[in-house]
Each structure stands twice: as C-alpha cells, then as structure tokens.
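FIELD: query
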Amino acid sequence: EAYEKLSDPNSLGILLHYRSSKSSQVISDSVRLKDSGQSEGGGNVAFIGGGNYASRTLIPAFRKAGATLTTLVTSGGINSVHHGKKHGFKLASTNMADALTTETDTVVIATQHNLHADQVIRSLESGKNVFVEKPLAISMSDLERIENACGKSHKILMVGYNRRFSPHIRKVKELLEPNKMPKCFSNSFISFTCSL
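FIELD: result
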C-alpha cells in the first residue's frame, strides 16, 4: 500500500506505523561495567555529566590523582557506557540516584548550568562532598538554597573555576616557576553585574 502512494501526486508523504515489540520498556537505567570492590586508593568519586570537558579533562585528572571512579551518570546511556569503560568506572547510568549511593564519597557535577543548583543540593543532602564546575548557580535564590544545604550537610563544596589561560594567571605562574619549593597560592576574583 505504501509503494502505491509513492507515485500518487496527491500524497504529501507516507506515515509508516510499526507494531511495538512486547518489551518496549526500559529494562534498566544502569549498566555494571566492572565488579564493585574496595577503594583502590583515593576517594570514591561519581561523575554527573560526561560531556567534552568532563570526559577529556576532569575524569582523566581525577583518575590520575588516584580517585576510584564509581559511577558515571549522563542524560543518554551511550556516553556513560563509552566513557565509563574507557576510564574504568564501575557503573554507567542515566539515573542520578546511582551516583548518590553509600559507595560514593564525592560527586563531580559537570552538567548544563541550569541543572547545577538542584544537583548540588541533592548531592549535599545525600551526604556527599561536591565539586561542581562553574557556575555554582544561576540565580541568587539558588545560591541561597545551596548555602543552606551546605551549612546543614557539613560537607565540602568546591567550585571549579578554570583560569589557567588568563594573562594574569600565566604571569603568576611565570613569576613562581623559578622557585622550586612547594607553593601555596591564594587568589581572589571579584565578579559583579553592572546595569546601565
């Protein structure tokens, strides 16, 4: 019947309807990539978000530092399985709850900016230390909610604010490089919005 419509000048298109299979439901939102075990060194770290920056910069840095990578959560399962296998995660998932189990000490959040606040709060309320890529929040009300959750949780909240290519940071690095001793450096940035 569809083939007849191909030559019919009055047809604008053909809509094909396929019968659904019996198991069109999602069987599982997670895939076990390797056996769970004790921490292999550093803390047990879960990642929420597996995009370019997370998969190319953050995950390799945490792995190199000795962290045990527990769970990688992405919005689509393909990325979490691919990067999870590549970097040695124990579990790949599309469900944030899988990152908030007792197996995880710290959660790294590298998702879309508008998701950060709720994910940070949920992680803190689950008793996790949190490292979130900038921005921490996109509104003052979200920032206040995060401050409240952080105060109640007594956990560590860190914000990644990468400025290594800034002219000022490059100059500081140049000035400190000749000194071979360990260095401790504190930097303060002030940011504000100016409305005209």
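FIELD: remark
The mean pLDDT is 85.
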